[in-house]
């Protein structure tokens, strides 16, 4: 009997919560008067209080449960006072709509889509998507647990931030829904060319991750990392993965303690590759005037790697630390040193920006063309 009564108490408490949420929602959206909403909440609260008295008198074993019930009722009452401040809500809504309009977002349509997503079975409006609509609700009608945090912020600052977030989420939704925009990797065999990157003591995991992504797109054979360079399954792997977007799981990688060890590996297992450093020095040549070996293996897909040894000609491109560059001790051991021309005041580009410039120049010289009939254009490689 006690268990049945306990179940009834829990059920009624859940009903009270639902009624409270429903009446608060109606109040915010102008679908019921304040008096009616408070009457709904008062009815359930009174019912529960009467039930608590009955339980304490008839069933002594339920006293502990009713104490929790009473606490829940008190919290419910406190929540009423926190969430029924329509003036604050109207201010948040007005400022959010102002900033949304500045961004070209139809704020009235978004408000209507938010309301319909809660009151009908239509789901989320395809013009905005689920994430944008939920973000709108999170600011205009925050959950009780978030209301204090929302109220503590400067309205214009928060509204501006939420507007920009909503605008981005809606655009992302439309882009993902567009059939003509490709957002996923195509299922096809990966082409590999005799192109190797050596990352010499790079410090930024974000830079390294970006280089991994560019290298994978260019069909690099592998990446060698040295010293403090972040690498997969090593230090900085999590940050690297954020910008690599899975490329670090595709490209073969080897890590060495020093760049000299990496050069010894190349000498033994990649004996015919040209060692090219990217650095601004007195002996540097423009990156697009050097003739890079490996065209035959690259253009005919005749790259041969046996027992981890590649006999085909190719290129190993050395990229140095963001501040100090390629290790000066190995500079005399390189076959060529190349640079990208600078026309501004700065001496160099970011290392992650330099890498694809030179890699695509190498592919251009090798006359590599795309094997896909999709929008992957090969016009720039002729």
Summarize the main sheet.
7 strands, parallel
- Strand ordering within the main sheet: 3-2-1-8-4-9-5
The share of residues in extended strands comes to 5-15%
Give the termini separation. 85 Å
- Our count of helices gives 13
Query: Taking Cα atoms only, what radius of gyration do you get, to the nearest Å?
Result: 32 Å
Residue-averaged pLDDT:
78
Total beta strands: 9
Structural class: alpha/beta
Give start-end ranges of low-pLDDT stretches: 29-38, 51-66, 76-81, 372-382
Q: What string, H for helix and E for strand, traces the elements in order? A: HHHHHHHHEHEHEHEEHEEEEH
Q: Helical residue percent? A: 40-55%
Verbal overview:
The protein is of the alpha/beta class. 52% of the residues lie in helices and 10% in strands. The protein has 13 helices and nine strands. The chain has a seven-stranded parallel β-sheet with strand order 3-2-1-8-4-9-5, sandwiched between helices. Strands 6-7 form a two-stranded antiparallel sheet. Helix 9 (205-217) links the parallel strand 1 and strand 2 (222-226). Helix 1 packs parallel to helix 3 and helix 9 (205-217) crosses helix 10. The longest helix has 27 residues, at 2-28. The chain is elongated and about 75 Å long.
List keywords for this structure.
13 helices, 382 residues, 10% strand, two-stranded antiparallel sheet, 7-stranded parallel sheet, 9 strands
List the topology elements.
Elements: H1 2-28, H2 34-58, H3 63-83, H4 86-102, H5 107-119, H6 130-140, H7 144-152, H8 155-177, E1 195-200, H9 205-217, E2 222-226, H10 237-244, E3 253-256, H11 259-269, E4 273-278, E5 285-286, H12 295-299, E6 305-306, E7 309-310, E8 314-319, E9 336-339, H13 351-365
Parallel strand pairs: 1-2, 1-8, 2-3, 4-8, 4-9, 5-9
Antiparallel strand pairs: 6-7
